[in-house]
Each structure stands twice: as C-alpha cells, then as structure tokens.
Amino acid sequence: MTTMTVQGQAPAATPGTVSRARALPGSEWIKLRSVRSTYLTMAAAAVASVSIGAISSAMVSGYATTPPQVRAQFDSFSRPLSGLVFAQLAFGVLGALAISSEYGTGTIRTSLAAVPHRRCVLAAKAAVLTIAVTPLALVISFASFLLGQALLHSNGVSATLATPGALTAVLGAAGYLIAVTLLGLGLGAVIRNTAGAITAVTAMVLLLPLALGEFPSPWNVRLERLMPDLSPIIARHASAPGNFTPSIALLVSAAWAAAAVAAGLFLITRRDA
Amino acid sequence: MIEVRGLTKRYGATVAVDDLSFDVLPGRVTGFLGPNGAGKSTTMRTILGLDAPSAGEVRVQGRRYGQLIWPLHQVGALLDANAVHGGRSAYSHLWCIAKSNGIGKQRVAEVLGMTGLESVAGKRVHGFSLGMKQRLGIASALLGDPAVLLFDEPVNGLDPEGIAWIRRFMQSLAAEGRTVFVSSHLMSEMALTASHVVVIGRGRLVADVPISDFVRSGSGGDVLVRSPRGTDLAAILTAAGGNVVPEPDGGLSVTGLDAPSIAGIAAEHGIAVHELATRAASLEEAYMEMTAGSVEYRAQNQGAKR
Predict the structure, then answer these.
(1) Which residues of chain A have pLDDT under 70?
(2) Average pLDDT, chain B
(3) What is the ipTM score, two decimals?
(4) CATH of domain B2-217
(5) Min CA distance, A28 vs chain B (Å)?
(6) What is the 3-state secondary structure (H, E, C) of A10-77?
(7) Whose CA, among A79, A199, B29, B53, lies 20 to 30 Å from A94?
C-alpha cells in the first residue's frame, strides 16, 4: 500500500449547523412527498378500504330472521374492516416503492453517494414512512369501522368502539397497515426491484396465508398463524382453535416487518449499489 | 485530488478493473479514456464508494469515501443523467439531494441558475430531453460546491451545442482549481476538453500522460512526398535509410526520414518535389494503437479495414 498524502485531507467537520439526524429524514420526507405515486397509493388505500368495508356491511340483511347458530358466527368487527385486506396492498406498495423506485431509476446511486452511511438512509426511510402512514392508517381503520357500524345498525348487530375487543381490533388493524408498509420497504431493500418487491409483499400477506390454509389440520392453523395476516387481528371471535389472539397476531406481523427491514439493513452495506 | 491505488474489481470470474493506480490532480480536466467495457464506470463507482473494491484502495481528498461526513461538499458526481425519478420536479430532485447533506434551498436555486434550468425547475423530469437531464445531473453534482467533480460520459447523446456547453463548463471548473475527472470513450472529445488523460483498456492502465505526450507516444506519423520522378526518388530515399511505401495516387509515404532530410536529399539529386507534408498521427490513431488488444467487443470485420 502506497502512503497517501495528508495535506489534501478534507475537513471531517460538517459545514452548516444541521445535524445528520435531521437532514436525512428531511431528505427522505421530500422524496416521499414529491412523487405522485405516494398520493395515489394513499388515496387508493383510503377509498378501497372505506368503500369495500361499507359495501360489505351494507349488504348484511335479514339478520333478525337468521338461525341463532349462524348469528353466533357473524363477525361485526371484520365486516366493516374487510376493506383493509385491499388497503394493505396499497400500504405494502408504498413501502416497497420508497426504495425499489430508487433502484429502478438509478437514483439510489445518487442517494448513497450523498450519504455513504447506507443503513442511515434505509433507517431514515423507515422512520419517515412510519410517520407518514400512521395517521392515514388510523383514519382508514377508524373510518371503516365507524361507517360500517352505522350501516350495520339497522340490523341490530352493530358494535361500538366501547364493545370489548373493538378498540383492539381497530388499533390493531392500523398497526398492521404500518407493519405491512415496513414489510414492503424491507422486501424492496432486499429485492431491489419494484415488480419483485410488490409480488413478494402480496404473496406474503395474501397468498401464503391462503395456501397454508390448505394444509391438513392442525398444520394449517399452526403455519397460517405464523404469517403476517390481517384476519386474526380484526376477528371478533377466534375463527379456529389454536389461532393467536389479535395482539399476538399483530406482533407476528410486526416481527415479519422487523425481519424484512433487518435483512435490508444487513444487505445494503454488503452489496454494490 | 483522487488517489487510486492497486484498485481491482472482480465480478465473479470477470475482472473489470485490474490493479489500477493513478492520481487525478486538481486544477485541470483529466480525461478518463477507454473503449466501452474497459472498466471506466466501475472505477468511478468505486471512487464514490458505491462498489466495494476487491482489492486496493481509493482516496478522495485524502480520505476514503465512506469517511466523508457530508460527501457532497467534497465530491460531486454525474454518473448517469437518466438516473432521476421521472415523476419528481427538477427542483424537488435537487432539494432532496441537497437536504441530505445539510445544503439549503438557496444553493438549489443557485445551481439551477448555473445550469440554466430555472425556467423548468417546477416541471417533472419525465419530459426532459437528455440534454436537460445532463444539466440537471451537473446541477446536482455542483450542489455542495465540491473540490472534486466526476462526470461519467457526460456528452453521450448530446447535441453539438450541449457538448460545447459541457466542455466549457468543465474547463471553467478546473480553472477554479477543482479536480475534474471526466470519462469518455471518444478520443476527439477528450482532445478538446482534457489537458491530461488516463487511458485504460480491459481494466488495466494503458497511459497516464499529458494529452500532448499522448499524441507523441503513438508511433504513427509519416511524410508524404509527391514528385514527377517518384520511382527514382523512392530508390534514393530507401538508400538513404527511409522506409518508402508508394500510395495508390502516386504519392510516397516515407517513414524514418523527416521532411527537411527528404527535401535535402531531393535537392542534392536535382529531383523536383511537388508536395512534401508531415502527417502526424491523430489522437484517434494513438488511442486505437494503445488500446488495441484491449477492446472488449471488437467488430468482426475490423481486419478487413484498410
């Protein structure tokens, strides 16, 4: 190794007064809000969620004349929140796009040349996404629930937020949407390709739980409950013995999100940009 | 200043850059020449810390790239003008890059002005021509007012006006004392822009010389002589130690003797000379000669070329 000249050393200190802890999230915030896809996916999530939950709730009729054993199966939480099954895809896409679009366009090179501390870049994306989607997830979840209950009211089966388990379901659903966003981000960071990342997040939250449900009992429940899945979080009654409670089910989904982001953080410094 | 030491980059079995060492000094435009696939872009990505070297080291302003706290204040780079999100406005594109390094909005406006993009700042990049994207890329490279600038093939696909603009811009940046390192596979472009060239072929260093030496180092070059008594003159010049090759139009291509000696010999023998011209090897010829054997993808019919 040849010795390097020291005279030409660059100052290590930072010009200006802004700290990196503020500059980097600020940069990611600009990236997120300066592209149309952010607003489109958010609007799609809101519209799909609230409208599908409302339609599903409004279609309930003749509850009063239904046999009691069927009535006992009726889930007044899941119906209004059923639109979130579609909303979660938009959240997953939003998360995936936050990084996969950078790989797709090549701007990742600009971003990582500007900030060689790559893990900080991905961590800032995760933080900014979480802050950006949390209010939306809460609004979508509460609005879907309340509108759905209003539509179920005529059947005399509606619940309120005060109903035991209702608040857990609504907040859990919002938390789940945030988890799927971060799952999308993590998968996007690992796969580095928009189509691949969206396929992966869709497969994980929709297709895999379906496929695992086809396994012979009790393996279907044992495997299904280990996947990120909205249904156990918003279920009023446990649908099958062995299913996790809503809180545990949310933790499972959050763990997947954390694992995906961790895999992204692990790989981002090990691969060439 | 950029210092490249023993840089090697392998992708599987392929060696893209092979034990490359050179310095890029401030105050001048240094051209980085090589045929397509020679390893220029790989080298540039390594300088920017984007690709990890398989061996060796690169330092920018005396530090490894990863040690730079706010790199945009030290190094600005344009790697690929098309690496922009089409849905983002030019202003937002620059603003998010600036923000990541603590650079303010005022500087964003300044670089938009320097590159003549003020009028389209609010427009989405999607509709930009390649020339406008090149300007946008240069604007982003200038954000931190860096001492080191890297441009990868900045004139590719540009119209003559755009090429002239970039050429002047790079020279003015170098005149301000900055280190300007610009890659190209076009010798003619570098001849007009750079004062020093680093030439690579197949990932290896071929030359690291001032552009003037670069021409001289290529052997090429001959003297063209035309005379009504060509055959006689050819015999005399050959006897005097020259290497004479008749050309199809009757001229003689002479190497091994310079024009004054040829004129002297012709006068001694009373042979009239109608034309006597020294033909220097062009930069292109010097470049082709140097990188011969290091061209990754050679046209099949090149051997048939006269």
Answers:
(1) 1-18, 239
(2) 89
(3) 0.87
(4) 3.40.50.300
(5) 7
(6) CCCCCCCCCCHHHHHHHHHHHHHHCCHHHHHHHHHHHHHHHHHHHHHHHCCCCHHHCCHHHHHHCCCC
(7) A79
Angle, helix A194-202 to helix A166-191, in steps of 10 degrees: 150
pLDDT at B121 over 60: yes
A27 touches chain B (CB under 8 A): yes
A142, A148 Cβ separation under 8 angstroms: no
> CA geometry: angle at B24 spanning B195 and B212, to 5°?
25
- Answer yes or no: are the C-beta atoms of B22 and B4 closer than 8 Å: yes
Contact A113 B50 (CB under 8 A): yes
- Give the start-to-end residue ranges of the domains of chain A: 21-57+71-268
A105–B60 CB contact, under 8 Å: no
3-class SS string, A182-235: HHHHHHHHHHCCHHHHHHHHHHHHHHHHHHHCCCCCCHHHHHHCCCCCCHHHHC
Structure confidence by residue, pLDDT tens digits, A48-91: 999 999 999 998 887 878 888 878 778 889 999 999 999 999 99
> Does the distance separating the beta carbons of B48 and A15 come in below 8 Å?
no
pLDDT surpasses 50 at B209: yes
Residue A9 contacts B where some CB pair is shorter than 8 Å: yes
Q: What is the pLDDT of residues B244-262, one digit of tens each?
A: 988 888 889 998 888 888 9
Strand order in the sheet with B243-246: B243-246, B252-255, B222-226, B275-279
Q: What is the CATH number of domain B222-279?
A: 3.30.70.100
Is any Cβ of chain A less than 8 angstroms from the Cβ of B54? Answer: no
CA distance B169 to B4: 25
